[in-house]
Protein backbone atom coordinates (compact mmCIF):
# COMPACT_ATOMS: atom_id res chain seq x y z
CA UNK A 1 0.00 0.00 0.00
CA UNK A 2 1.28 3.44 -0.90
CA UNK A 3 2.34 5.34 2.25
CA UNK A 4 2.60 2.22 4.45
CA UNK A 5 6.25 3.03 5.27
CA UNK A 6 5.32 6.56 6.38
CA UNK A 7 2.55 5.21 8.64
CA UNK A 8 4.80 2.59 10.22
CA UNK A 9 7.52 5.24 10.73
CA UNK A 10 5.04 7.51 12.49
CA UNK A 11 3.97 4.49 14.56
CA UNK A 12 7.55 4.03 15.77
CA UNK A 13 7.72 7.73 16.68
CA UNK A 14 4.38 7.52 18.52
CA UNK A 15 5.51 4.40 20.41
CA UNK A 16 8.71 6.19 21.53
CA UNK A 17 6.63 9.20 22.58
CA UNK A 18 4.32 7.06 24.75
CA UNK A 19 7.21 4.90 26.05
CA UNK A 20 9.00 8.03 27.24
CA UNK A 21 6.10 8.84 29.57
CA UNK A 22 5.79 5.23 30.71
CA UNK A 23 9.49 5.09 31.59
CA UNK A 24 9.30 8.53 33.23
CA UNK A 25 6.56 7.16 35.51
CA UNK A 26 8.42 3.86 36.17
CA UNK A 27 11.58 5.83 37.04
CA UNK A 28 9.77 8.66 38.79
CA UNK A 29 12.30 11.34 39.82
CA UNK A 30 15.30 9.18 38.94
CA UNK A 31 15.39 9.19 35.12
CA UNK A 32 16.99 12.61 34.54
CA UNK A 33 20.00 14.35 36.14
CA UNK A 34 20.89 11.25 38.19
CA UNK A 35 23.76 8.88 37.44
CA UNK A 36 21.49 5.80 37.59
CA UNK A 37 18.94 7.42 35.26
CA UNK A 38 21.64 8.34 32.72
CA UNK A 39 23.03 4.79 32.93
CA UNK A 40 19.52 3.37 32.40
CA UNK A 41 18.87 5.60 29.38
CA UNK A 42 22.23 4.49 27.93
CA UNK A 43 21.41 0.79 28.36
CA UNK A 44 19.65 -1.58 25.97
CA UNK A 45 16.68 -1.81 28.36
CA UNK A 46 15.68 1.82 27.98
CA UNK A 47 12.47 2.89 26.29
CA UNK A 48 11.36 6.17 24.73
CA UNK A 49 13.67 9.17 24.66
CA UNK A 50 17.25 8.24 25.49
CA UNK A 51 19.08 11.45 24.56
CA UNK A 52 21.30 13.10 27.15
CA UNK A 53 20.31 16.62 28.22
CA UNK A 54 23.80 18.11 27.73
CA UNK A 55 25.21 20.29 29.28
CA UNK A 56 22.99 19.73 32.34
CA UNK A 57 23.66 15.98 32.02
CA UNK A 58 26.92 14.41 30.92
CA UNK A 59 27.78 10.86 29.98
CA UNK A 60 30.49 9.46 32.26
CA UNK A 61 33.76 8.89 30.40
CA UNK A 62 35.83 5.70 30.79
CA UNK A 63 39.10 5.80 32.73
CA UNK A 64 41.22 5.65 29.56
CA UNK A 65 39.40 8.61 27.98
CA UNK A 66 41.99 11.16 26.77
CA UNK A 67 41.72 14.87 26.32
CA UNK A 68 44.41 17.55 26.75
CA UNK A 69 47.11 16.53 29.26
CA UNK A 70 47.71 18.17 32.63
CA UNK A 71 50.76 18.31 34.90
CA UNK A 72 50.70 16.59 38.29
CA UNK A 73 51.94 18.01 41.58
CA UNK A 74 52.13 16.33 44.96
CA UNK A 75 51.02 18.10 48.15
CA UNK A 76 53.86 17.91 50.66
CA UNK A 77 53.23 17.68 54.44
CA UNK A 78 54.59 21.23 54.89
CA UNK A 79 51.90 22.59 52.53
CA UNK A 80 54.28 23.07 49.59
CA UNK A 81 53.49 21.80 46.10
CA UNK A 82 56.04 19.50 44.50
CA UNK A 83 55.79 19.57 40.71
CA UNK A 84 56.66 16.12 39.36
CA UNK A 85 57.91 17.46 36.02
CA UNK A 86 61.69 17.72 35.81
CA UNK A 87 61.59 19.59 32.49
CA UNK A 88 63.49 16.73 30.86
CA UNK A 89 61.78 17.52 27.56
CA UNK A 90 60.94 13.94 26.55
CA UNK A 91 57.23 14.73 26.16
CA UNK A 92 58.00 17.69 23.89
CA UNK A 93 60.28 15.50 21.76
CA UNK A 94 57.73 12.70 21.27
CA UNK A 95 54.70 14.97 20.74
CA UNK A 96 53.72 14.37 17.09
CA UNK A 97 52.28 17.84 16.33
CA UNK A 98 54.98 19.54 18.49
CA UNK A 99 52.51 21.47 20.65
CA UNK A 100 54.51 21.36 23.93
CA UNK A 101 56.99 24.13 24.82
CA UNK A 102 59.11 23.93 27.97
CA UNK A 103 61.50 26.47 29.51
CA UNK A 104 63.89 24.99 32.03
CA UNK A 105 64.74 26.65 35.32
CA UNK A 106 68.37 27.65 35.76
CA UNK A 107 70.11 28.25 39.07
CA UNK A 108 70.71 32.02 39.16
CA UNK A 109 74.05 31.52 40.97
CA UNK A 110 75.61 28.73 38.94
CA UNK A 111 73.55 28.91 35.75
CA UNK A 112 73.13 25.16 35.93
CA UNK A 113 69.71 23.63 35.10
CA UNK A 114 67.34 22.90 37.99
CA UNK A 115 64.91 19.99 37.39
CA UNK A 116 61.75 22.12 37.54
CA UNK A 117 60.01 23.83 34.60
CA UNK A 118 60.13 27.63 34.65
CA UNK A 119 57.46 27.69 31.94
CA UNK A 120 55.38 24.97 30.34
CA UNK A 121 52.89 25.48 27.52
CA UNK A 122 50.57 23.15 25.64
CA UNK A 123 48.66 24.42 22.63
CA UNK A 124 45.36 22.65 23.25
CA UNK A 125 44.10 23.61 19.78
CA UNK A 126 46.91 21.62 18.18
CA UNK A 127 47.05 18.71 20.67
CA UNK A 128 45.67 15.59 18.98
CA UNK A 129 44.98 13.83 22.31
CA UNK A 130 47.25 10.92 21.39
CA UNK A 131 48.61 10.41 24.91
CA UNK A 132 52.23 9.90 23.79
CA UNK A 133 53.47 12.53 26.26
CA UNK A 134 51.87 10.68 29.17
CA UNK A 135 53.11 7.31 27.90
CA UNK A 136 56.72 8.42 27.62
CA UNK A 137 57.05 10.64 30.71
CA UNK A 138 59.43 8.80 33.09
CA UNK A 139 58.02 10.56 36.17
CA UNK A 140 54.22 10.17 35.78
CA UNK A 141 54.22 13.94 35.66
CA UNK A 142 51.93 14.47 32.68
CA UNK A 143 48.56 12.72 32.53
CA UNK A 144 45.74 12.78 30.02
CA UNK A 145 42.79 14.73 31.40
CA UNK A 146 39.08 13.94 31.23
CA UNK A 147 38.00 17.58 31.13
CA UNK A 148 36.76 18.18 27.59
CA UNK A 149 34.92 21.46 28.26
CA UNK A 150 37.69 23.89 27.38
CA UNK A 151 36.23 25.59 24.32
CA UNK A 152 36.94 29.31 24.19
CA UNK A 153 36.91 32.24 21.78
CA UNK A 154 40.67 32.67 22.17
CA UNK A 155 43.50 30.43 21.13
CA UNK A 156 43.82 27.78 23.81
CA UNK A 157 47.49 27.84 24.81
CA UNK A 158 47.59 26.54 28.39
CA UNK A 159 50.38 27.71 30.68
CA UNK A 160 52.01 26.07 33.69
CA UNK A 161 49.49 27.51 36.13
CA UNK A 162 46.54 26.24 34.10
CA UNK A 163 48.12 22.85 33.52
CA UNK A 164 48.97 22.02 37.13
CA UNK A 165 46.54 19.75 39.01
CA UNK A 166 47.02 17.81 42.27
CA UNK A 167 47.78 14.10 42.42
CA UNK A 168 44.44 13.67 44.22
CA UNK A 169 42.69 14.84 41.01
CA UNK A 170 44.70 12.31 39.01
CA UNK A 171 43.60 9.60 41.48
CA UNK A 172 39.96 10.68 41.21
CA UNK A 173 39.77 10.42 37.40
CA UNK A 174 42.13 7.47 36.81
CA UNK A 175 42.15 5.34 39.98
CA UNK A 176 43.53 2.16 38.34
CA UNK A 177 46.36 3.98 36.54
CA UNK A 178 47.14 6.02 39.65
CA UNK A 179 47.46 2.93 41.83
CA UNK A 180 49.66 1.17 39.24
CA UNK A 181 51.96 4.23 39.01
CA UNK A 182 52.03 4.57 42.81
CA UNK A 183 53.01 0.89 43.20
CA UNK A 184 55.81 1.34 40.64
CA UNK A 185 57.07 4.45 42.44
CA UNK A 186 57.04 2.64 45.79
CA UNK A 187 58.96 -0.30 44.28
CA UNK A 188 61.55 2.07 42.76
CA UNK A 189 62.01 3.89 46.07
CA UNK A 190 62.36 0.59 47.95
CA UNK A 191 64.98 -0.63 45.44
CA UNK A 192 66.88 2.67 45.76
CA UNK A 193 66.81 2.45 49.56
CA UNK A 194 68.01 -1.18 49.48
CA UNK A 195 70.87 -0.24 47.12
CA UNK A 196 71.91 2.65 49.36
CA UNK A 197 71.81 0.39 52.41
CA UNK A 198 73.92 -2.25 50.66
CA UNK A 199 76.50 0.39 49.65
CA UNK A 200 76.73 1.80 53.21
S1 LIG B 1 56.18 16.14 31.74
FE1 LIG B 1 57.51 14.36 32.02
S2 LIG B 1 58.44 14.02 30.03
FE2 LIG B 1 57.58 16.09 29.99
S3 LIG B 1 59.29 17.40 30.60
FE3 LIG B 1 58.13 16.92 32.44
S4 LIG B 1 59.14 15.11 33.30
FE4 LIG B 1 59.84 15.30 31.20
S1 LIG C 1 48.49 14.21 23.83
FE1 LIG C 1 49.81 13.90 22.00
S2 LIG C 1 49.51 15.76 20.83
FE2 LIG C 1 48.74 16.22 22.86
S3 LIG C 1 50.45 17.13 23.95
FE3 LIG C 1 50.53 14.92 24.36
S4 LIG C 1 51.90 14.07 22.80
FE4 LIG C 1 51.29 16.12 22.11
How far apart, in Å, are the first and last alpha carbons? 93 Å
Could you estimate the helical fraction of the residues in percent? 25-40%
Query: Compute the gyration radius: what is it?
Result: 25 Å
| Strand-residue proportion | 15-25%
Number of helices, counting only DSSP H or I runs of 4 residues or more: 7
Q: Element order, helices and strands?
A: HHEEHEEHEEHEHH
Oligomer: single chain
Main sheet: strands, sense, barrel:
4 strands, mixed
SS-based class: alpha+beta
Broad shape = elongated
Low-confidence segments, ≥5 residues, pLDDT <50? Answer: none
> What small molecules does this complex bind?
iron/sulfur cluster
| Number of E-type strands | 7
Rounded average pLDDT: 94
Describe this structure in words.
With 200 residues, this protein is α+β, with helices and mostly antiparallel strands. 38% of the residues lie in helices and 18% in strands. It has seven helices and seven strands. Strand 3 (100-106) and strand 4 (113-123) form a beta hairpin. Helix 6 packs across helix 7. The chain starts with a helix and ends with a helix. The mean pLDDT is 94. The structure holds iron/sulfur cluster (2 copies).
Observed structural traits:
200 residues, 7 strands, binds iron/sulfur cluster, single chain, alpha+beta
Describe the structure concisely for a colleague.
The chain has seven helices and seven strands. The protein is of the alpha+beta class.
